[in-house]
Amino acid sequence: MSRKTLETKAESAEETASRPTLRTVAAEAGVAVTTVSRALADDPRIAESTRKRISEIADRLGYVPNRAAQRLRTGRTKVISLLINPRHEFLSFTSEFLGGMYEGLSGTGYAINITADSLGEDRLDAIRNIRRHSLADAIVFTRTECFDDRARYLLEHDFPFVTHGRTDFMTPHPFVDFDNEAFVRLAVERLVEKGRQHVCIVMPNEKYTFGQHLRFGARQAAMTHGVRLTVPGAVDLDSEPDEIAAMLRGLHGGPDAPDSYICVGEVSALITLACLNDMGLTQGQEVDVLAKRASPISNHFRPRIETIDEDLRATGRAMAKVLLGRMSGEPVEDLQILLKPEGPFSVSS
Amino acid sequence: MSRKTLETKAESAEETASRPTLRTVAAEAGVAVTTVSRALADDPRIAESTRKRISEIADRLGYVPNRAAQRLRTGRTKVISLLINPRHEFLSFTSEFLGGMYEGLSGTGYAINITADSLGEDRLDAIRNIRRHSLADAIVFTRTECFDDRARYLLEHDFPFVTHGRTDFMTPHPFVDFDNEAFVRLAVERLVEKGRQHVCIVMPNEKYTFGQHLRFGARQAAMTHGVRLTVPGAVDLDSEPDEIAAMLRGLHGGPDAPDSYICVGEVSALITLACLNDMGLTQGQEVDVLAKRASPISNHFRPRIETIDEDLRATGRAMAKVLLGRMSGEPVEDLQILLKPEGPFSVSS
DNA sequence: AACGTCTATTGTAACGTTGCAAACCGTGGT
DNA sequence: ACCACGGTTTGCAACGTTACAATAGACGTT
User: Fold this and answer.
1) DSSP symbols for B134-169
2) Tens-place pLDDT, residues B318-347
3) Which of A92, B67, B228, B302 could hold A295 in an S-S bridge, CB 3.0 to 4.6 Å?
């Protein structure tokens, strides 16, 4: 219950008066403000002895730099915005991804700031807001589309960003992507091993770039293994249960229905399972469902389903690396990373 | 593909040179900087005619106030931080909640900023960081505990905050809570209607305050309806599938096992269903599971389960109201809202 | 002893905003 | 014609920081 338990010692000092500034520290140390600023920024022009003395005094006084002043002066925020659509995203998804980014950014002074897009009417509002009010130095987003308006906007304004997934734009930009072609090949292989002959992909909306990769990879895999492949019209990713239901009923109306399904998300897998169940088809018997797993939730589906993991922590780490590279002006070719189910490798190399 | 499609007209003007400031606008309008500042802040001291003229010029030039400068000058951020634990929270949960807060804050100039706690080693780090760096004017968090360290810290430092859920502290603080006693009474009633005689609550961890409310409400309801009640040792909310499994196996070892379960979250419901299934018990036959529903995900559980909704959008709206009240210094008694399954009413009234 | 050279530190000026005290100006009362 | 008085507007200063140019001092060279 005592204050002590919740406070660091620097904080308790800070409590007494108004917050110490560079001026306070400078006065205490008997040096100029500039010197303190430099000393705390580890500027090599400051002698090691004074640097140490000053940083001790700063600690003792509980000095914390004023972010607003730093931002005003430098124009930089030291913040990275992660855009999410709270209607779509599982936080369990975001958790690993965030953790990875956090790891990758630790020690750099950058903070991660989650921003909800899609609260206003226009999805770009959130991004415009960030840019116009300088709320972040860079932006990250997922569910990248072939002709993504967010990416386009940011490219046009030369605002640093990294996407999870690729676009079809001619102008190259930094990205980190999961190799969905490899994923779907692996998935088909697994289903074939279980004796399945006719695979169907529960496709995400066509607008998502990775849908194209899935389609392509699945064609390849189906050829290789000599199995039938059905790629029905797109269903909105992680949503639209009615559409999935309609699609499945359509497929199972005739004589040549799929005997296995590949889902790209856990929610769509859950919906698929429910629909199949409603049609009297049991997972593991008449059909098999395989899902990309990004959270532990699919462990609790019954009957159990097949899963293939996407390492989102590694994705987050890669994201951080690319982000820092982008902000320090590295060439874009070095900032495009494709993560294989097996491990990472750079597209350029 | 053209720029026009993605830009507002104010933005394109802004593009040409460096960003316009108050000085720019003042020069253009032939008035003092202060006048522009006041005009744009709708200060009554500025004549309506000049106010209008200035704001037109500001629009034309694409003037956007510099947030960093405002923050430095005023010490206020106009930001509210929503703390979330990405390991626990569904974003589908957060979506409605966020939307409600957004509605409640629209027009006030406040922005919502989602911050992940629990990325560092100490949960309080995130909050300390916000306070020390003045990253927000107020903090909101969920999953409030009886002796919540976050609430304690913020109370000690007199930092504005609102909790989702109550604490057991003597010092009153603003909160918005769902009436879980009412919820559990309703839940028991529903299960009794289905002919169930022995209800079990899959309890959240004891540290959460709402666990106490559940326990109390369930006792009342069980008495009223004359059914058996089992309240086993706590299980961590939305997690620890092994613990749930062990608990259920324990309960179903003897002759007097529950025939129905109340779950406070959808993930715990899913886990419970999986465990029951693994024991050969089918939902809707040997047992019934009822869950509090905060997202559409439970619609896809098969067999279907009973649900009772918590209106998270209304919760978010209430949150915003309380938040604004807290920041404008309203008395704390007016800032404690308990939302019934039926509708809202203030604790104080 | 004067000179240049290097290192460590200093002082000044901004970044863009808002609060405060002062000034302006047309109006109306005396 | 003077003064007081609203309603408007202005100028100055400051928030806390960092960039830049300038300075002070130490040291080796000529």
Assistant:
1) T--SEEEE-S-BTT-HHHHHHHHTT--EEEES----
2) 999 999 999 999 999 999 999 987 644 444
3) A92
Tokens 């957004």 identify what position? B102
Q: Tell me whether residue B47 is exposed, middle or buried, using C-beta atoms within 10 angstroms of its C-beta: 0 to 12, 13 to 18, 19 or more.
A: exposed
β-pairing verdict for B344-346 and B336-339:
antiparallel
Of the candidates B187, B130, B192, which has an alpha carbon nearest to the alpha carbon of residue B161? B130
Closest residue, CA to C1' of D15 = B73
Residues of A whose CB is below 8 A from B278 = 302
* B55 CB below 7 A from strand C atoms: no
Residue A271 to residue A275: CA distance in whole angstroms: 6
Q: What is the pLDDT of residues A118-169, one digit of tens each?
A: 787 789 999 999 999 999 999 999 999 999 999 999 999 999 999 999 999 9
Question: Cβ(B128)–Cβ(B341) under 8 Å?
Answer: no
Closest approach of chain A CAs to the CA of B170, in angstroms? 12
Token reading at B4: 């026009």
pLDDT in tens, B87-126: 776 655 678 899 999 999 999 999 999 998 878 778 999 9
Q: Does A128 touch chain B (CB under 8 A)?
A: yes
Residue B200 CA to residue B247 CA, distance in Å, equals 11
Classify A343 as helix, strand or coil. Answer: coil
CB B207 within 8 Å of CB B146 = yes
Over residues B282-296, the mean pLDDT reads 92
Say whether the CB atom of A55 is under 7 angstroms from strand D: no
**CB contact (8 A) between residue A274 and residue B98:** no
| A127 touches A151 (CB < 8 A) | no
| Backbone phi and psi for residue B99, each to the nearest 5 degrees, phi listed first | -60, -40
The C1' atom of C16 and the CA atom of B66 lie apart, in whole Å, by: 7
Q: Do B165 and B177 contact (CB within 8 A), yes or no? A: yes
DSSP labels, B219-238? HHHHHHHT-EEE-PSP--TT
Nearest to A288 by CA among A278, A271, A303: A303
pLDDT at B214: 95
- How far away is chain B from the Cα of A155, in angstroms, using its nearest Cα? 11
pLDDT of res. B65? 96
Q: Assess B146–A contact: CB distance below 8 Å, yes or no.
A: no
Binned at pLDDT 50, 70 and 90, residue B237 comes out as low
pLDDT tens for B13-46 read 444 457 899 999 999 999 999 999 999 999 999 9
Of residues A240 and B344, the one with the higher pLDDT is A240
Q: B72, A66: Cβ pair inside 8 Å?
A: yes
Nearest-angstrom CA–CA distance, B34 and A221: 68
- Looking up tokens 């730099």 gives A65
Strand C atom within 7 Å of B19 CB: yes
Q: Does residue B158 surpass a pLDDT of 50? A: yes
Residue A345 φ/ψ, nearest 5 degrees: -155, 150
Structure tokens at B153: 């810290």
Range 17-46 of B in CB contact (< 8 A) with A: none
